Amino acid sequence: MPRNYTVRYLPIAVDDLISIHDWISVDSPVRAADFVEKLDRLIQNLRRHPLLGKEPRLEKLRCLGYRVLILESCLIFYVVHGRAVTIHRVLHGSRHLEDIL
User: Fold this and answer.
1) pTM for the whole thing?
2) b/e per residue, 70-89, with b = 16+ CB within 10 A?
3) CB-count burial class (<10 Å; 0-12, 13-18, 19+) for 13
4) Does residue 96 form part of some domain?
5) At 64, which CATH number?
6) Helix, strand, or coil here: 77?
7) pLDDT the model gives residue 12
8) Residue 34 placed within a domain
């Protein structure tokens, strides 16, 4: 039986999740909690399938080893090193990524 990978969040990724929750909860606290839970479930799939995400379009990010998962308008950027998956950022797709990552 294959071992699971460890998933960890950088502090800024945790801040991103809190910001997403706070922004959605202005309109609907229930929807905010549900959406963040969906994000977390998707991220936890990386424990068994670390290459689930695709390579990003931006060459700079590909060269840095990033992969990206997409849920609705959110992009989850992560890197796989050894048996660990590190979540770097969780961002809205409309943001200018080169300035952020």
Assistant:
1) 0.87
2) eeeebbbbbbbeeeebbbbb
3) buried
4) yes
5) 3.30.2310.20
6) strand
7) 96
8) yes
